[in-house]
Design a protein that fits this description.
This protein is of the alpha/beta class. The protein is 49% helix and 18% strand. It has 2 domains: 3-115, 3-Layer(aba) Sandwich (Rossmann fold); 117-152. The protein is elongated, with a radius of gyration of 19 Å. The mean pLDDT is 88.
Length: 152
């Protein structure tokens, strides 16, 4: 173990193209990692492809897990894989639940537990749709109650 490794907090490294603004668009990735209880660190890097960023991130992470983000792709990489064979790759236009699952699977890799699957994604997507419908119903009810209170 190098001195650098001894000083570095164990975390999943997330490297993103520094020209990519805003990184907050990808907060679901971080939330997926947080849900699994694994720390992460975010670093802006020179413009490179997501796969190269992810591989550099996993090389520099004590945990050996890295995520790279460029303008087109989000890549999850693991130090034991070949540089040109990442574990997962999704589009930056993927919906938020898929981003959350990617982040969570990075953390699950660290914990050596089973990954969430596309079936899990479909279930979570259905729950999300129901929650949005419920929020809309509540909004309509509140508007009606307020309108009735004004009439009075």
């Amino acid at each position: 173990m190098s001195i650098k490794d001894q000083q570095q907090k164990p975390s999943i490294h997330i490297y993103y193209n520094k020209n990519l603004i805003p990184i907050e668009k990808f907060k679901e990735i971080m939330w997926g990692i947080e849900e699994e209880g694994i720390p992460y660190s975010i670093h802006a890097k020179e413009a490179r492809k997501a796969q190269a960023l992810a591989y550099e991130a996993c090389e520099e992470s004590v945990l050996g897990v890295g995520i790279g983000i460029d303008g087109e792709d989000i890549v999850l990489h693991y130090i034991k894989l070949k540089k040109d064979e990442p574990l997962y790759q999704i589009s930056t236009s993927a919906d938020r639940l898929l981003m959350r699952i990617l982040g969570g699977n990075g953390a699950r890799l660290v914990k050596s537990i089973a990954f969430k699957t596309l079936e899990d994604y479909e279930v979570e997507k259905e729950i999300d749709v129901r929650e949005k419908s419920l929020e809309e119903e509540v909004r309509i009810i509140v508007e009606r109650v307020i309108a009735r209170m004004k009439l009075g």
